C-alpha cells in the first residue's frame, strides 16, 4: 500500500492517535465513513452564494465600465472558470486527506506560521464580511417587513440606537439570529438548506428575468442599452477587472475551501461538482443580473442598480415577498459557506484546547454584531473597497498554498507529521514557520496593495487578487529553488573535494 493510499483511507486508529496528541474533533481528518458530500452536494453548495445582493450591486458597477450588456454577461460567465479552477485545485488537499483549512494552512506555513494568515482569513475577513453581508440582507428583510406591516417602519420615529434606526436594528437582529442558527448547524444543515434553495433560485430569478424582459419591451432594448463609461479603459482590461472582482468575492471561501472538501466522498466529486455548479450558477447569474437591472431601469425610466429598489417598486405584494425571501435565503447561504463556518473552524484552530466549532461560531457572531457593520456601510463604496482589500490579502495566501502543494510537496502530505505532537516533534517538516512562504506572502501583498498608494499603479488595485496570487506563487517557488540550491551546493563541493584528493 502506498503512502497516498494510507492517508486517503485514514483509519479510526490513526485519528485516535492524532486526538491523543491534543487535537479536537473539528481539526481531525475525516475518515471515509464521515465524508458525506457527493457531486450533487457540491453542485448546489455555492449556488446560493452567487445570487446575493452585493453581487448584484457589483454588476451595476460593471455596466459603467464601458462594455455592452452582452459583453458584461460574457465576462461574468467566463469568470466562473477562474473561480471553479481555483476552488477545485485548492480543495484537493481537503478531499484527498479529509483535513480542514486550518491544517491545510499549516502544511504551507508551518504550525506557528499558519496563525497569522489563518487569523486574517478566519477572523478578520470572515467576521467582518459576515457582519456586512448580514446587514445588506437585513435591508431586504426591512423592506419585506415594511410591506407586510407598514407601521413597522415608523417604530421609534427618527430615533437611532448606535447609529441605526429601531426598525433597522430589529431587522438586523432577526436576520443575524437566522444566520447564526444556520452556521451553528454546520455542513449538515447547510447541505439540506442549499438543496431546498437551489430550485427556488431557478424559479424566482428566472421569473424576475422574464418580468424584466417584458417590462423593457423585449430582450432587444436590454441588449442595446448603452451606458456612458465613467472611465475610459481598454476593453480587454475591463474583462480582467471583472474577472478580478468576481474572483475577489471568492478569495475568502476559496482559500478555506478545504473546510468543505474535507467532507467530499472523492476528489472527483468536489472537482466535478464545484466546476459544474459554479459554471451553471454563473451562466444563470450573468444573464439574470444584467437583464433584471437594465430591464428594471428601462421599465421605470431610471438608472437603478440596486436590485432591492427595483423589486420594491413592483405592484404585486406576493412577488415582492417571495423575491425578497429568496434574496434573504441566498444571503444566509453565502454567509454560512463563506464566513461563519470558516470563522468557527479557524477560531477552533487558534485555540484548540479552549474552543470547539460551535463556541467559535458564537464568538465570531457576537463580534460581527459588535463591530456595527451598518457604520461600515455608510460609504457606498465600502463593499468594493473591502473586497479589493480581501483579494489583495488572500490572493498571496492562496498562491503560496497552491504552489506549495503541487510543486513543493508534489501532491503529498505526511499526516503523521502534520498532526505533530507539539511537545515532542520539533524537527518535522511542518514545525515552526515556513520563512519562504512568509517572505513570498509579504512581498506579494505589498505589490498587490501598491496601487492604493501609487496612482501610476492603479491598475494593480483593479487586478489585486491576480497580482497577489501570481506574484506570491512565483516568488515562493523561486525562494524554494534558491534554498534547495544553497543546501545542495556544500554537498557538491565536498564530493568534488573528495574526487580531487583521490
Give me some keywords for this one.
1% strand; single chain; 73% helix; 2 strands; disordered N terminus; mainly alpha; 502 residues
Using the alpha-carbon principal axes, give the shape: globular
The succession of helices and strands, N to C, reads HHHHHHHHHEEHHHHHHHHHHHHHHH
Cα-based radius of gyration, to the nearest Å: 24 Å
Distance between the termini: 43 Å
Note poorly predicted spans. Answer: 1-7
Range of helix content = over 70%
Structural class label: mainly alpha
- Give the number of helices: 24
Mean pLDDT: 87
Query: Into which percentage range does the β-strand content fall?
Result: under 5%
Major pleated sheet: 2 strands, antiparallel
* Beta-strand segment tally: 2
Strand order of the largest sheet: 1-2
Fold and architecture overview:
It contains 24 helices and 2 strands. The chain is mostly helical and 502 residues long. Strands 1-2 form a two-stranded antiparallel sheet. It is globular, with a radius of gyration of 24 Å.
Amino acid at each position: 500500500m502506498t503512502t497516498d493510499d494510507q492517508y486517503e483511507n485514514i483509519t479510526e486508529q490513526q485519528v485516535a492517535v492524532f486526538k491523543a496528541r491534543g487535537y479536537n474533533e473539528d481539526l481531525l481528518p475525516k475518515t471515509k465513513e464521515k465524508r458525506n458530500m457527493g457531486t450533487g452536494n457540491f453542485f448546489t453548495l455555492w449556488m446560493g452564494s452567487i445570487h446575493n445582493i452585493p453581487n448584484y450591486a457589483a454588476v451595476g458597477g460593471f455596466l459603467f465600465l464601458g462594455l455592452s450588456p452582452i459583453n458584461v454577461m460574457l465576462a461574468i460567465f467566463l469568470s466562473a472558470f477562474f473561480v471553479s479552477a481555483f476552488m477545485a485545485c485548492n480543495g484537493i488537499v481537503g478531499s484527498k486527506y479529509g483535513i480542514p483549512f486550518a491544517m491545510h494552512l499549516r502544511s504551507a506555513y508551518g504550525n506557528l506560521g499558519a496563525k497569522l494568515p489563518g487569523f486574517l482569513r478566519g477572523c478578520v475577513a470572515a467576521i467582518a464580511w459576515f457582519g456586512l453581508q448580514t446587514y445588506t440582507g437585513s435591508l431586504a428583510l426591512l423592506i419585506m417587513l415594511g410591506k407586510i406591516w407598514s407601521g413597522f417602519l415608523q417604530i421609534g420615529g427618527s430615533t437611532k440606537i448606535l447609529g441605526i434606526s429601531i426598525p433597522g436594528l430589529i431587522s438586523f437582529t432577526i436576520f443575524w439570529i437566522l444566520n447564526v442558527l444556520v452556521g451553528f448547524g454546520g455542513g449538515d444543515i447547510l447541505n439540506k438548506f442549499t438543496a431546498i434553495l437551489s430550485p427556488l433560485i431557478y424559479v424566482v430569478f428566472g421569473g424576475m428575468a422574464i418580468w424584466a424582459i417584458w417590462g423593457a419591451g423585449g430582450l432587444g432594448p436590454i441588449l442595446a442599452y448603452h451606458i456612458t463609461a465613467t472611465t475610459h479603459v481598454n476593453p480587454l482590461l475591463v474583462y480582467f477587472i471583472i474577472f478580478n472582482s468576481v474572483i475577489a468575492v471568492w478569495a475568502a471561501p476559496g482559500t478555506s475551501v478545504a473546510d468543505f472538501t474535507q467532507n467530499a466522498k472523492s476528489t472527483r466529486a468536489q472537482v466535478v461538482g464545484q466546476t459544474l455548479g459554479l459554471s451553471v450558477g454563473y451562466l444563470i447569474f450573468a444573464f439574470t443580473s444584467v437583464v433584471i437591472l437594465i430591464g428594471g431601469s428601462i421599465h421605470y425610466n431610471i438608472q437603478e442598480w440596486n436590485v432591492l429598489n427595483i423589486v420594491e417598486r413592483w405592484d404585486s405584494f406576493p412577488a415582492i415577498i417571495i423575491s425578497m425571501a429568496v434574496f434573504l435565503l441566498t444571503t444566509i447561504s453565502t454567509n454560512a459557506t463563506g464566513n461563519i463556518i470558516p470563522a468557527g473552524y479557524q477560531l477552533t484552530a487558534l485555540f484548540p484546547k479552549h474552543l470547539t466549532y460551535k463556541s467559535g461560531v458564537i464568538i465570531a457572531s457576537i463580534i460581527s454584531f459588535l463591530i456595527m457593520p451598518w457604520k461600515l456601510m455608510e460609504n457606498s463604496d465600502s463593499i468594493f473597497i473591502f473586497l479589493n482589500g480581501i483579494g489583495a490579502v488572500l490572493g498571496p495566501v492562496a498562491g503560496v498554498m497552491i504552489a506549495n502543494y503541487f510543486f513543493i510537496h508534489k501532491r503529498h502530505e505526511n499526516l503523521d507529521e502534520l498532526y505533530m505532537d507539539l511537545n515532542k516533534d520539533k524537527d518535522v517538516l511542518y514545525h515552526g514557520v515556513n520563512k519562504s512562504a512568509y517572505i513570498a506572502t509579504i512581498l506579494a501583498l505589498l505589490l498587490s496593495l501598491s496601487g492604493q498608494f501609487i496612482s501610476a499603479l492603479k491598475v494593480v488595485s483593479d487586478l489585486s487578487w491576480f497580482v497577489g496570487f501570481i506574484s506570491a506563487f512565483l516568488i515562493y517557488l523561486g525562494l524554494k529553488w534558491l534554498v534547495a540550491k544553497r543546501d545542495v551546493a556544500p554537498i557538491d563541493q565536498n564530493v568534488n573535494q573528495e574526487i580531487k584528493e583521490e
